[in-house]
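User: Predict the complex with adenosine-5'-triphosphate.
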Amino acid sequence: MTHLGSPHDAYDFIEQIGDGSFGTVHKAQHKISHKLVAVKVMKKKHTTIEECQGQFEPKLLDLLPAHINIVQLYDSYLSPNCELSFIMEYMDGGNLYQLMRERRHHNLPFNHCELRSIL
Ligand SMILES: Nc1ncnc2c1ncn2[C@@H]1O[C@H](COP(=O)(O)OP(=O)(O)OP(=O)(O)O)[C@@H](O)[C@H]1O
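Assistant: Here is the predicted structure with adenosine-5'-triphosphate placed in the model:
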């Protein structure tokens, strides 16, 4: 379900944590519950709810069964300035590239079990 309105009304944006091909990702905190979330603000502008609901990523996340290795999608917003934002579970471990660099730096290669869970 996409809400009409800005995610800034419900969340305090803390910092930008990523920049992908399709959107920028921010760490944010719900103003009432204080729960930390990741907000992905899509680069492409959208004008209608129907257009937002046709997006591939949220459709896929909705279809997948709950799993600890799959980020949960909580909500989405369509702002008056035509920005579409997804509110997602916040993962605080960094991305795979950062993890690989850190492990290499400490000379700690992944074992078979870890590789299987990543792939
Ligand atoms: N749910 C999340 N919790 C914490 N950080 C996240 C979350 N989602 C994305 N990020 C951070 O934001 C970065 C960009 O994510 P995004 O999904 O926009 O692109 P990507 O999948 O990394 O790259 P691309 O879309 O270009 O293939 C990620 O690399 C990660 O560091």
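The chain is about 25% helix and 35% strand.
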